[in-house]
Amino acid sequence: MKVAIQGELGSNSHMAALAMLGDAASATDGGGMEIVACATSAEVFERVVSGAADGAVLPIENSLHGSVAEHYDLLLAQPVRIARESLLRVRHNLIARPGVKLAEIRKALSHPVALSQCRRWLAAHPEIEAVNFYDTAGSVKHVMAAGLGDTAGIAPELAARQYGGEVLVAGIEDHAENYTRFHLLLREPALRESGWLGVEAGAANKASLAFSVAHRPGTLVLALEEFARAGVNLTKIESRPVPGMPWEYVFFVDLRFDSADQIDSAMGGLARHCHMVKELGRYVAA
Question: Any idea of the CA torsion for 66, 70, 72, 78, to the nearest 10 degrees?
Answer without folding.
Answer: -160
